[in-house]
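Appendix C: a fully annotated inverse folding record. The material below is reproduced so that readers can follow the format used throughout the book. The structure is listed first as tokens, followed by the designed sequence.
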């Protein structure tokens, strides 16, 4: 029986020195913090940044936040190797414990043990036991069976049956990964920086308490915010998700010195939120832009055969990338394609993303669609190489989101020179500029019009040169900008 599963690793970063940067340093503060710099009160020293990796080593997901976190940490590690910066990757389960980032992100049983460790410390409640069991038994058919039966009175029964195997394996993982070297514990001191790039602050109940202790010792707390949608649009999320997010954000505001948005749009949302709350620390709010690098030309042998067959046919394939959940607006896209298919159009639609929350209606629509497997396809578990393959071979990319914090699929598709059909929302205008072909969310016929032009060979929506001229900052640029932004905080600059 296989007990361990490999973690999907981040792509190897390849920075092109000739890549023209469209976006330079974006460390513009939206709010001014009058407090004195904690490092300014100490003697000049090498900056030490503790970068939190708790959520990434505890997750098998490969959605936008996880890809951002991996790539940004990778770039920060490289930055530290070529500068005086001291970067310490840590997980925060029972203290700040240093990890070897390369070991955690490599393929193999060591990385799998790291994932098991992360899940095991979260499995304190009965509802979390299922995730731990799925980590121990990685067979997909078992996972589907467990999810289908994990309900009501069956939960404690299944936990009792699986527990004798699940818990010993998780204890082995905990011993093997971190507990062997107690000297890897760290206590951030005055002038140090704790940077949180992922979702740890609301994934773990006691995480902000740890941040609070670090701040009490004089550390500066910086948090990358991806979006505030659970409190801005609660109707898109499960009630418990909204309540958890709201509570975690309230705790975070009480300890964070700096909030960094992944776009101007996100940082503006954060500023508006802080203005409407009691913000005792008068936190600063700035932003950086997420990066992109040249496509990773993975061998096609790493791509599953049915995916290659999909793109081998002559009729064009349009792809949508993102978790299947209300905000991604898949019903709107399906409405447009149903109109195309009603006219016997040859377009095919490929949805790439796992099933999310409050998605039963759209999932039922996809799985019950008469064209599923013919003109409609759904892949929920593509790895990075397969995602790159889809970008390279698609006719165009469709981003129909109702709201986004940034929108990685925009720059990923534009990097490939693909036509991009995007909903006309402010953040897409901010990121995509005139390189996207926008459609109104008020009527799916606006998207139908773009699809028909693409099928007629009229370039989809305009000049093919628009995407060829696109350039954007690299992940290394993003990391460099982040460090400069933190240095500005450290020096007390505004």
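Designed amino acids, in order:
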């Amino acid at each position: 029986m296989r007990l361990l599963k490999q973690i999907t690793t981040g792509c190897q970063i390849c920075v092109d020195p000739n890549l023209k940067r469209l976006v330079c340093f974006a460390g513009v503060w939206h709010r001014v913090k009058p407090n004195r710099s904690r490092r300014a009160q100490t003697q000049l020293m090498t900056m030490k940044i503790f970068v939190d990796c708790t959520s990434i080593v505890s997750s098998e997901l490969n959605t936008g936040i996880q890809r951002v976190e991996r790539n940004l940490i990778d770039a920060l590690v490289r930055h530290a190797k070529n500068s005086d910066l001291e970067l310490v990757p840590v997980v925060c389960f029972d203290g700040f414990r240093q990890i070897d980032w390369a070991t955690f992100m490599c393929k193999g049983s060591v990385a799998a043990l790291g994932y098991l460790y992360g899940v095991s410390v979260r499995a304190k409640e009965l509802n979390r036991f299922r995730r731990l069991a799925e980590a121990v038994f990685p067979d997909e058919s078992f996972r589907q069976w467990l999810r289908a039966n994990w309900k009501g009175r069956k939960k404690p029964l299944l936990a009792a049956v699986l527990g004798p195997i699940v818990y010993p394996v998780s204890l082995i993982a905990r011993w093997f990964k971190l507990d062997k070297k107690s000297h890897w514990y760290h206590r951030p001191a005055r002038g140090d920086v704790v940077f949180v790039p992922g979702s740890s602050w609301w994934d773990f109940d006691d995480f902000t308490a740890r941040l609070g202790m670090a701040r009490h010792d004089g550390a500066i707390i910086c948090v990358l915010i991806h979006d505030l949608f659970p409190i801005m649009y609660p109707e898109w999320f499960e009630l418990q998700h909204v309540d958890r997010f709201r509570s975690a954000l309230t705790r975070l505001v009480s300890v964070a010195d700096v909030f960094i948005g992944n776009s101007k749009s996100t940082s503006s949302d954060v500023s508006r939120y802080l203005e409407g709350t009691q913000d005792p620390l008068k936190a600063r709010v700035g932003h950086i832009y997420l990066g992109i690098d040249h496509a990773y030309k993975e061998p096609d042998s790493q791509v599953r055969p049915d995916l290659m067959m999909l793109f081998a046919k002559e009729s064009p394939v349009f792809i949508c990338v993102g978790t299947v959940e209300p905000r991604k607006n898949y019903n709107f896209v399906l409405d447009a394609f149903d109109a195309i298919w009603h006219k016997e159009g040859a377009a095919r639609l490929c949805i790439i993303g796992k099933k999310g929350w409050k998605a039963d209606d759209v999932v039922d629509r996809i799985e019950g669609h008469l064209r599923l497997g013919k003109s409609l396809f759904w892949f929920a578990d593509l790895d990075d190489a397969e995602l790159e393959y889809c970008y390279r071979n698609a006719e165009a990319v469709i981003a129909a989101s109702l709201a986004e914090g940034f929108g990685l699929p925009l720059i990923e598709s534009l990097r490939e020179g693909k036509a991009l059909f995007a909903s006309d929302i402010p953040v897409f205008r901010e990121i995509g500029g005139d390189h996207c072909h926008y459609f109104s969310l008020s009527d799916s016929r606006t998207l139908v019009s773009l699809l028909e032009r693409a099928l007629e060979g009229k370039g989809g929506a305009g000049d093919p040169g628009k995407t060829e001229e696109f350039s954007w900052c690299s992940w290394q640029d993003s990391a460099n900008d982040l460090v400069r932004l933190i240095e500005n905080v450290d020096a007390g600059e505004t």
